[in-house]
Amino acid sequence: MNIQNQPSFGMALYMPSQSKIAKKIGSYAAGEAEKARVTLKGLANDVDIYVKPEQNYNKDVRRSCLRCMITNLGQNPISRYFNRNSKKANTYVGVYEEPFSEKLVKTVQKLKEDFIKYSK
Questions:
Q1: Between the CA atoms of 67, 69, 74 and 75, what dihedral angle is there, to the nearest 10 degrees?
Q2: Can you give the pTM of this predicted structure?
């Protein structure tokens, strides 16, 4: 996963640049994801949030999505991303879901709430 944001203390959003998202799943999804970036950064104050574009197996952009994953802050992000034993929550937001930027924010917000609730 290509990461544009370099996380700093208190900010842990890992999301590719708008151009990289556009290349993978289309310009509409990239523009909508970019609208949600600031809000997602705000949600990433106490957890790591990963947003990764994923193509449909037959590369149909109408069926592409953004994979959203929440994990705890602290560990090495690469090992945490691939470690099956680390606590994480993930879901997908389809490009076809309208309005896409709002759906992305609401989905990540709910995912974060559930993650915090059930990881205690």
A1: -70
A2: 0.78
* Omega within 30 of 0 (cis) for the link into 99: yes
DSSP summary character for residue 11: B
Residue type, 93: V
pLDDT digits (tens, 9 = 90+) for 63-102: 889 999 988 765 555 655 555 555 678 889 988 878 899 9
Higher-pLDDT residue of 22 and 98 is 22
Sign of torsion over alpha carbons 82, 42, 94, 60: negative
Whether 14 and 49 have beta carbons less than 8 Å apart is answered as yes
* Mean pLDDT across 18-34: 94
Helical spans, DSSP H, in the chain = 18-25, 27-43, 77-82, 100-118
- Of 64, 66, 61, 72, the C-alpha closest to 108 is 66
Residue 11: beta bridge partners?
A: 8
Number of alpha helices (DSSP H) and beta strands (DSSP E) in the chain: 4, 4
